[in-house]
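Checklist before submission:
- one chain only
- standard amino acids only
- sequence pasted in full

Submission:
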Amino acid sequence: MFLTTIVFIAILGVLVLAHEFGHFIIARKMGVKVDEFAIGFPPRIFGIYKNRAGKWIKVFGNKKVEDVPTTLYALHLIPLGGFCKIKGEDGEKSVDEDSFVNKKIWQKSSILVAGVTMNFLLCAILFSIGFMIGLPQAVDSSAHKVLSVKNTEVQIISIAENSPAQKNDIKFGDVILSVNGNKVNSAKQASEFISKNGSKEIILKIKRNNQEMEKKIIPKKINDSEKAKIGVAMVDEGIVSYPFLKSIYMGFATTIKLTKTITVTFYNIIIDWATGKKIDTDVAGPVGIAVLTGQMVNMGFIYVLEFAALLSLNLAIINILPIPALDGGRLLFLAFEKIRGRAMSIKLENTLNNTGFTFLILLVILVTVRDFARLDFFAGLWGKISGLF
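Returned file contents:
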């Protein structure tokens, strides 16, 4: 539990800091002052900034700091990411040349989109590193001829609700070693061994977190299937690696492919919600992500790396949605400003942003409550995410 908490905080911190660093670096390039760039959230523990004489000034504790001519770099107590406070982003100090509100629309847009861009790049970089080291992927027999594939295993990637497998404590990530003593070399072979046994009890030998165990299961017909099944989806998974340049290409190609897939998924969720249809896609909040993090920690570093890449990409896509309080919502306001020829009133913009923020907080609370109520579904959720590859 302690290790999971540390990894969860570390992943969240890296993703949020990468996002805020994007805003920071482009704001500076556009001549906009960044009042504070912080790791963590208040109260402040320590800060440092350069005064007008060029001397570094240290700040201890949470006391108010005024008239800082440069950026205050700070470390805060709550280790959940960080923030970048840009001068004039809320409409104040509009007469100052180095204020966000005083810049051209294309400059403001560049600053806003920089955070999303950094999360996209971080995802691609993490996948590239993963492909250099060796990333777990579903493979088929022909892949061995063109890729470097090792440690091929038959892995369970999802479990059907109320299936024999679920009732007998089969988990996402379990590796099937044998069926009734017959060694399993592929997912197809495992399925054949199970099917030919009919509705008689079978003995599955599985590996979970490097521990081997046996499970006795009686297959049954599921959803009017012709053959008795145990209710799992299996893939042949191996550690796939590429040469250096190919890894970089695959990292970006995978990120682009997943961007399209996740965007379509979000679109379908929004359409189903707007039309009152049942939302079939599972959505995880902070608790769900923490649970998934624990599963990835148990499976190994490379799975944590892959998970962090996916979270970074999800963060990018969510932030670009045209919802007030998000980067996408502020970009939408800039588009209206361009069309109308004048900016929206600061009061109205702040009201919309506050409304959007309240909506997002309520949504997070709702999803978190649902997370606590359905902790068992997260193993299946990761299986669905893995299926995107």
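Reviewer check: The two ends are 29 Å apart (CA to CA).
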